[in-house]
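From the pipeline queue, job 12 of 40. The input is one protein chain; the requested action is below.

Action: predict structure.
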Amino acid sequence: MNIPYGPILVVEDNPNVRELLEVTLHFKGYPVVSVENGQAALEFIAREHPALIVTDILMPKMDGFALVHTLRKDPRTTRIPVIFISATYITPEDKAFAMSLGAVRFIEKPIDTEDFLLTVAEVLTEDLAVMPPPLDDLEFYRGYRERLEHKLRHKQMQLTRIERLLQTLPEEQRPAFELLRARTLEDRDQIQRELNQLYRILDEQGRLSAAGSF
């Protein structure tokens, strides 16, 4: 199978999902490289130009939003097509922000493998002559903050509901919801860390802007 440039790069921190995507793509003959987060993706891309990037959004170290914004600002990587996959950022507003960054497709988890393979084949054969200009940093940070704040509120509401439910469930039903609580708590804390980092960036931007106005 002819693929322009290099392999398909899968960026996914969940090992089960990462393995599923690897196996699915290998089965159809695609060369595949996978990494666990956006920072590792940038390190790979500095060495090799992938034909396509398939990336999750919610990840440690550097998430999918920040990864794609970084790629779009660099003339050497701005035209690499990107497919977002996510189980967390799936509202219409989330998808609109993802596409405004320059992604070519958005796929919700759980992933339908047949639909996924069709999407990959379509993207690899499309003419991507027209790409949206990258967002400027301030526009990106503001949109990013809005998405994170919305998602943080949603995760906190989920936790509240789960914890209320755990108080009423019979013992035999509790393990599944304890596991759900742990996953939701992990997601909430990851979003909070990203949001805290973003607040620091915006605060620094504000100080620089104020200094420049004098």
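Job complete. The first helix runs from residue 15 to 27.
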